[in-house]
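Work Package 3 (structural annotation) set out to generate three-dimensional models for the target panel prioritized at the project kickoff. During this period the team completed the workflow that converts sequence records into discrete structure tokens, so that structures can be stored uniformly alongside our sequence database. As a representative example, we reproduce one entry of 206 residues exactly as it appears in the project archive.
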Amino acid sequence: MKNFTVIVLILLFAGSCKKQEEKYTNLHQITVEKHQEKLNAQYADSLSSPLKQDDRLSFEKLDFFPINESYKVEATLKLTPNDPVFEMKTTTDRKPLYKRYGVALFTLNEKEYRLNVYQNQELILDFEHRDYLFLPFTDETNGAESYKGGRYIDARIPKDSILSIDFNLAYNPYCAYNSKYSCPVVPKENHLPLKIYAGVKKFDKH
């Protein structure tokens, strides 16, 4: 009888863990889907869309990789407070001022990677965006499945040394849709030598 009770408790515990895991997965799915819906609404709106007029009129939705929770990672953020302010290259002559805020170290597919995390020096003067962080990156899908110039991820300064990076939220720079925009060029050191099958795919007309 005692052994039976132990077995029942183990099964109940396993079932509880499975429900918690499913709840977390569903929450992540919902979060990413809301992000995608917001992007689609923005791109369909004539007041906020970066699309050329002809492209916007025929626009239905962006093309995304399937949502995959394994592309959400918890990175250790190593701060670089002594780094100098520099002019970041863009697709035009514009050179906005940025500073490397830190280095994000993380594991993906059982391998270790790093991404430099930047902070726009103009945005830190804006109360709403003073904790905004910029994670531009390139990967091995660029030019094939995703935009050739790489993609961006937005983040906020974490309260501790752990920075959550969700590649499912990666989006294209505006210049992937319209050459009139000036977009930061992803620094060479932010190339990931693997294929990131997450986030926005390339625009089918480019």
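The radius of gyration is 20 Å.
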